[in-house]
Write a structure and sequence with these properties.
alpha/beta, Spore Coat Polysaccharide Biosynthesis Protein SpsA, Chain A, seven-stranded mixed sheet, 7 strands, glycosyltransferase activity, Glycosyltransferase 2-like domain-containing protein
């Protein structure tokens, strides 16, 4: 099997080196072919320099540079458009996730149409992020009749499935949107635990007023596209 790994990065010069090395370790002796797609989302630090350094040494590493910051969701969608391997998975450029967990996820790819991850230990998250995450999971499960343990964790599925989706989120709700739309299409799924390390440098951009508003917007769009149309 072959896999495309999308690594979104925004001002991650201190974390990206470890993230890329971790992703490379995860695919070693695990897949027949791979590509790493680093998407620099308009960083103003040396993220672009770190990304280009890896690309110069390894032809399987692609780098996409955004002139300005356009958001995690838009970055992930850009990665999907440029992916060309059989399977696709995202890996954070802030390196807050274990490469061993990424390898385990890749190995499970063929077990179901969609393999999703959940965080069994939320102690590495701030209280605000834990509260937001728990509330979000409860609302999403209630709205769409699902019983998922986590919506914003990494997942792996066939690349063509994601290329066929019409994803609209430009923010951090992109993973949740993709999962809801894929499951609405009747895909089989499995959830596995994922080890989150917590970022070593910098501050998480996942919880902010803007990200909350973007998430609510995505939820309303999903309600309209899936729930309301289904009820008509």
């Amino acid at each position: 099997m072959s896999v495309s790994i999308i690594i979104p990065a925004y001002n991650e010069e201190k974390n990206l080196n470890s993230a890329v090395k971790g992703a490379l370790w995860a695919v070693k002796d695990t897949v027949s072919d791979y590509e790493l797609i680093i998407v620099d989302d308009g960083s103003v630090d040396r993220t672009h320099w770190v990304a280009n350094k890896f690309a110069r040494k390894n032809r399987k590493i692609k780098v996409i540079h955004h002139i300005k910051n356009i958001g995690f969701g838009s970055t992930f969608k850009d990665g999907i458009r440029n992916a060309c391997k059989d399977y696709l998975v995202g890996f954070p450029g802030d390196y807050d996730t274990s490469e061993k967990s990424l390898r385990d996820l890749i190995k499970k790819a063929s077990s179901a149409d969609l393999i999703m991850t959940y965080n069994p230990d939320m102690s590495t998250r701030t209280w605000a992020r834990r509260l937001f995450s728990k509330s979000f999971i409860m609302m999403m499960n209630q709205l769409f009749g699902l019983r998922l343990k986590y919506y914003n964790g990494s997942f792996i599925c066939k690349t063509k499935l994601l290329k066929n989706l019409k994803l609209v989120s430009g923010g951090f709700a992109i993973y949740a949107e993709a999962k809801v739309r894929l499951l609405h299409n009747g895909l089989s799924y499995e959830e596995i635990p994922f080890k989150y390390l917590g970022r070593k440098f910098g501050k998480s951009k996942a919880v902010s007023i803007n990200s909350v508003l973007q998430t609510l917007e995505t939820m309303f769009i999903l309600i309209n596209d899936i729930k309301l149309k289904k009820d008509k």
